[in-house]
Amino acid sequence: MQGKSHLLVGLTAGIVLDSAIHLTGDPLTMAKTVPLALLIHKAVYYWSVGFGSLLPDIDNARSTMGHKFGKISKEIQHLAGHRTLFHSLLGLAIGSLLAIGLEQVVIYLMDLRGLEFPALFVAGSHLVFFGILFGCIMHIFADSLTLGGVPLFWPSHKRYGFPPNPHMRFRTGTWPEGVIVWSFMIVVGIGIWLAVLVV
Ligand SMILES: [Zn+2]
């Protein structure tokens, strides 16, 4: 899938996850007042999910992440190839380690700017860690819907996808990709709208 699709799928799924288990605190639709801390939690969480949803394509120098990481990305693509290590369970383990490190950086930067309370919340809830990991999982899932599938158990080169028959999957960048991404966003949007109506 293309970077934009990954970002939209990741962030939309992130909304579903947050409304199911309230990672960032009270949902905005239910909060009587919207304290600044809650907005900061949500910003940190969605940044993490967005980052995670693009991260596996670090192995493709021409992707959104590839452009950001330049040389590193070229080197990874050269050594491992696109849709290999970073689109597998092993890649998820590496992504988790990276997420733990990045979480510490975020906490440090927040402390530095005098945001002690949100920093404590991030440290206690592991918002950054869960956000990045969830984004990565959604990326691999979204790519599994495409014709190429994903090498889930890399270094084994066998590729997996959903539906299992590759002829029922679509080629990255063709029209079904947009249909799937937009249908998913519309379904979640209707879900949120109904939830607001019920409240
Ligand atoms: Zn990918």
UniProtKB/TrEMBL annotation:
The UniProt transmembrane annotation reads 89-110, 117-142, 179-198
- The name under which this protein is listed is Metal-dependent hydrolase
Report the superkingdom from the record: Bacteria
Lineage of the species this protein comes from: Bacteria, Bacillati, Chloroflexota, Ktedonobacteria, Ktedonobacterales
Q: PANTHER family, alphabetically? A: INNER MEMBRANE PROTEIN YBCI-RELATED (PTHR35531)
Q: Which organism is it from?
A: Tengunoibacter tsumagoiensis
Sorted keywords for this record are: Membrane, Transmembrane, Transmembrane helix
